[in-house]
Amino acid sequence: MKIAFVSDCWWPRINGVTVSIQTFRDELARRGHQTLVLAPTYPGAAPDPADPPVKRFRSVNARISKEDRFVVPDAFPAVFQALDQFAPDIVHFNTEFAMFLAGRIWCQVRGKPVFITCHTNWEFYAKHYAPWIPSFFTRRFARRYMRRAYLNADYVLIPSPQIGELLNSYGVQGPFHVLPTGISKASFRAEPEELTAYRNSLNEQAPLLRGKRLLLFVGRLGDEKNVSFLLPVLQLVVASVPETALVLIGDGPYKRILLERAAALGLADHIHTPGYMERAELRLAYGTADVFVFPSKTETQGLTTIEAMMSGTPVVAIGEMGTRDVMQGDNGGYMVDEDPN
């Protein structure tokens, strides 16, 4: 079978959508299927490998998010041509913007069904990307836009039942097909000597971590991830266990604000922000941490909680949305309310 993954994001952009597509793509290839990714260009990105194939299309900065890109309308004919050449049996959409619009036109003309996965809770994310617009307007716009995107899809795929309930509240009746992103155990397995060597190198890179117990967060450092909630939590933990540090792996527009707030709370020597990591290193970071902390309340799935648990690291997470479905109670850690105490 030939499957085309159509998305408004792909490597080098690091997020749950990219990881999900890569995971499904790897498994489909292992089972003998052909895949093609159609995605935007990213300035300065390394060339894509020839196999498995990736087709890129001219894009511009998304403005509301410097990390993201929008494919320009005059690139749509190139999208149509790429799909014609590949002749997919299934077109799987993973986002709802320019690439979705182009690919959906092709599906309508060619009589192909539209498969789309709802990866992002835009109703609650939109206000963080456009904070100058009143939140009641961004939420209303997001609800209407999502309803239009999903209402006429032939197959709506959801990573967790909570997202089906959300779409249903928009008037999208389904049926919904629950298809979580799988994670290979081998991808997050690390030997004890690997973890010891990694912790030693981490201490060399960031001396402030030496001798400290590590709380770990992995994800975009944006306000939508509720990362600021971790600062009063860290303050309370440090008061009881002074030799504790918080490691924030990722990047984003909220990083500077977080560091400034941490300094104001006297936590500058208890927080480390190494930026994004390659996945080969990330598995070691998970395995080295004492506790994985996840404050987001808007996840459709919360892949990082699964990755942490796969690494044998206990999770403490706010039990809302997809995170609640993934952890299903206190399995692999603890689900808590949004209370720093």
What order do the helices and strands come in, and which of them pair?
Layout: E1 2-6, H1 16-30, E2 34-40, E3 54-57, E4 59-61, E5 69-71, H2 76-86, E6 90-93, H3 98-110, E7 114-117, H4 122-129, H5 135-151, E8 155-158, H6 161-169, E9 176-178, H7 192-205, E10 213-218, H8 230-240, E11 244-249, H9 255-264, E12 271-272, H10 279-288, E13 291-294, H11 303-310, E14 315-318, H12 321-327, E15 333-336
Parallel strand pairs: 1-2, 1-6, 2-3, 6-7, 7-8, 8-9, 10-11, 10-13, 11-12, 13-14, 14-15
Antiparallel strand pairs: 4-5
Helix pairs in contact: 2-3, 4-5, 7-10
Detailed description of the structure:
With 341 residues, this protein is of the alpha/beta class. It folds into 2 domains: 2-178, Rossmann fold; 185-336, 3-Layer(aba) Sandwich (Rossmann fold), CATH 3.40.50.2000. The chain is built from 12 helices and 15 strands. The strands form 3 sheets. Strands 3-2-1-6-7-8-9 form a 7-stranded parallel beta sheet, sandwiched between helices. It has a 6-stranded parallel beta sheet with strand order 12-11-10-13-14-15, sandwiched between helices. It has a two-stranded antiparallel sheet with strand order 4-5. Helix 12 links the parallel strand 14 (315-318) and strand 15 (333-336). Helix 7 (192-205) packs across helix 10. The N and C termini lie far apart (52 Å).
